[in-house]
Specification:
Two copies of one chain form a homodimer. A three-stranded antiparallel beta sheet of chain A has the order 1-3-2. The first copy, chain A, is built from five helices and three strands; from the N terminus they run ααβααββα. Chain A is 69% helix and 12% strand. The first copy, chain A, is mainly alpha-helical. In chain A, a hairpin with a 2-residue loop joins β2 and β3. At the A-B interface, α1, α2 and α5 of A face α1, α2 and α5 of B.
Chain lengths: 121, 121
């Protein structure tokens, strides 16, 4: 797993404006100017956000004549989902081990109690 | 969806040391000192990372006597997965709409061609 790529993806996603830009682009391509308006951002501010999203590979830019058309690339999200899935797997494995341990302790306690009951009073 | 909570979660996850701490805690509880050693970090540096993870709700701290026991709380990861799932749904919906549009265009082209073929030569 490429850790630096995952860093970039997660950092890009950690800003609400950048997430909103991705949400917009998930619904269809847009020009930089299309994005600046609804978010009440300067062209400069929206460009900075887009550059960060491009760096993380979440947004692609296609130059058509004088226009820059932006589209979403969901592929880097795979690595985020994989990382989360791995954590859940580790965590579940640990819970199962804990369960097994507690069950073993319970059984040991029952055996001890039975052993005592069998003895003379 | 709580956007500020999602910001905190994603920002917390965007650092490789913090992800490594979570990976370690997913395998079982640990004390702050247990975490500092394998990561070759000062207690101060590891404490800062842990505070950020606690703020995002990804790590819980339990005080047992003089020891602070840390454990993982995977619940904030749900919101990350939900956000990604929403993006994928939007994106797939858009691709299906594009497919339908292209199919409609193809059909229109075939109809036009048939119309032309039917005409006199």
């Amino acid at each position: 797993m490429n850790s630096a790529a995952l860093d970039d993806t997660l950092l890009s996603l950690s800003d609400p404006t950048r997430r909103a830009i991705l949400e917009r682009l998930s619904q269809g391509e847009a020009r930089v100017t299309d994005l600046a308006e609804p978010f009440a951002l300067s062209l400069n501010a929206v460009s900075k956000h887009i550059r960060m999203l491009e760096r993380a590979g979440l947004v692609r830019r296609e130059v058509r004549g004088r226009e820059h058309i932006l589209s979403v690339n969901p592929q880097p999200l795979d690595q985020v989902e994989e990382w989360i899935a791995t954590q859940r797997a580790l965590w579940k494995h640990r819970l199962r081990s804990l369960d097994a341990l507690l069950l073993e302790e319970d059984r040991a306690r029952v055996r001890t109690r039975k052993g005592k009951n069998r003895g003379p009073r």
